[in-house]
Structures are given as structure tokens and as C-alpha cells.
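Deliverable D4.2, example record:
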Amino acid sequence: MEWIKIVRSAFGTLPGPPPFPSDLEMIHSWGVGDWHSPRWIRSFLTSPSSTPLRPGSATQPSVSEPTFEWQDMQVETVEKEIVMESSERFVHTFSAMLPMITKNFWTEQQREELGDMAMPRLLEWMEGEYGKGKEVKMTWVANLIVLKKGAGGE
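Output generated by the structure prediction step:
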């Protein structure tokens, strides 16, 4: 998760510096499960405890849905280069993640002392790394899951 490495490097220049989660800690702070792992995804979606599931919601079992099994499951890991037009755009996009990081991983004192410095420091670091007004290229990875409802489905 390249964006995490960028933010980790920038925040590492803050006074202190405040703790920054590992990639896995970050992923787990978003919810339950190892959704980054194709093996875990297959295991989770084929385990008896994961069915019945509402189609479109692979985390919340639904007792009101009829029982069915997934068939023809495919999990494909894909990579795509993402280009943001500038460091400013990256910082603007990332700003939605800052509260989650500071709430889950920083102390109250760190939030008070460093919170206002975080985004300007990120921009400063990125402009030093990528250049002011220059593109920021990152490789993003996603697991695409395709499956069909089997017996008992509608």
C-alpha cells in the first residue's frame, strides 16, 4: 500500500515522531478480516460461518436471506498505476484518512500538538520527494472477487 508508505515517511519527520501503523495494522483498523489476502478471502467466503451472506455484503451475515452457497469463485489480484496530478491533490485526497490515523494511533496530546502540522508536513515532504506541482505515481493493488449464487439462491 504505497500511499501508506508515503504518509509514514512524511509523518516520520514530525516532532516525536508519533507512531505510525504498519500496513497490516492499518488494514485491520478499517475492519475485520484479511481482505488483502486472496487465500483468506476464499477461505472466508467458502466457510459455513460466512453463509448465508447478503450479496454485496461479505462481512455481515443475514439471517433473513435464504441459505445458499457461492459457486465459481474467482479472486484475482490486480495492480494498477494511479497518477495523481500533484502532491497537493494527494494531500487533499488523503485528508479524509488523517482523522482515522490520529484517532486510532496517536495520543490526545499528540493530536493536540501535531494535528495542525500533519497535512502541511505531508505536502512539504511530498514536494521535496516528487517536486512541486509534479505528478505522483503509485501502484495500487486490489483483490477482485467474482462469484455466483448457487443452490437456494434467488
